[in-house]
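=== RUN LOG ===
request id: a7f3
mode: sequence -> structure
chains: 1
length: 146
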Amino acid sequence: MIPGAGRILAVDWGEVRIGLALSDETQILASPLETLTRRAGKRFPMPRFSELVAQHAPIAVVVGLPLTPEGTEGPSAAAARELAGQIADRTALPIEMWDERMSTARALGAIREQGGRTRGRREDVDALAASVLLQHFLDARRGGRT
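=== RESULT ===
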């Protein structure tokens, strides 16, 4: 169970880039934090993630669960669950899995709506996708849907 006050860190899992977002203390607003990059064949960059956890002191972590369009779990969802387990083991923080379908598409749409370009900005897009994921989670919590 995630307490109702304190920062929540969100992780938008990807095979190469992992977007991170952070809520405010009141859990109303999500903001992009950083994008971590995993080199081909390498593990999740846990040292940098641990630095960010120490720096921002979140009370919980929300990990995006990449479901198929039909809502089922595939290989990406299994990898996200494995990452969630690693984060739980390393941080001892409560972990919540959250449906991340369309978070990247919504982030791209938001950038385009504001007249921005996405070419060459994958890191920005991934962190923004994590904030879209986290904002959805926060809004659902306030609405009593978690």
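=== NOTES ===
The longest helix spans residues 122-142.
The helical segments are 46-56, 75-91, 103-113, 122-142.
=== END ===
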